[in-house]
Amino acid sequence: MPDGQTVEVAKMKFSATCPNNARTDVVSGEEEIVMDHPEPRGTGLGMSPIHTYLSGFMGCTNSTIHKLAKRAGTEVTALDLEMEVGLDRRGLTMDQVVELPFVYAKTIDASDEQLQEMKDGLSEWCPIAKTFKNAGTEVIEEWNVTRP
Q: What residues contact 114, with CB distance under 8 A and at least 6 apart?
């Protein structure tokens, strides 16, 4: 490493069985997820790979916000997330190679100094949010806070 720091690497292993062109059964350790496409292309037994990836972004956002709240000396008692994503479909339909498939990602929902620390930290610490931003996707975060 150029900065002289030791990197701790967490190895993650996955395997997949693909019974047809639309379904992928992925196993990692003791966990399994079924990815599929809606009918008529698939059987609709699970989320599509893109939906699965974006669901991971929501899970990463949840986990990161709770960690940041703890670091800021507060806690999140309830958190609801919603997301809207703008996807350039030309790459999906194989009409054109698209360098930036996710044009925008907008997360909605999640306290003033502590909340700001959480907002600032989300894109620094959530690996999926960082991937979106570094790829050039416009990530729009709208935080609506309800206090007791």
A: 69, 72, 73, 74
Does the pTM exceed 0.85?
A: no
Per-residue DSSP letter, 6: P
d(CA 109, CA 35): 27
Closest CA to 46 of 36, 59, 54, 55: 36
CA distance 18 to 145: 43
Residues 9-33: tens digit of each pLDDT: 989 999 999 999 999 999 999 999 9
At the top level of CATH, which class does the domain 48-142 belong to? alpha beta
Facing residues of 32 across strands? 27
Which amino acid type is present at position 135? A
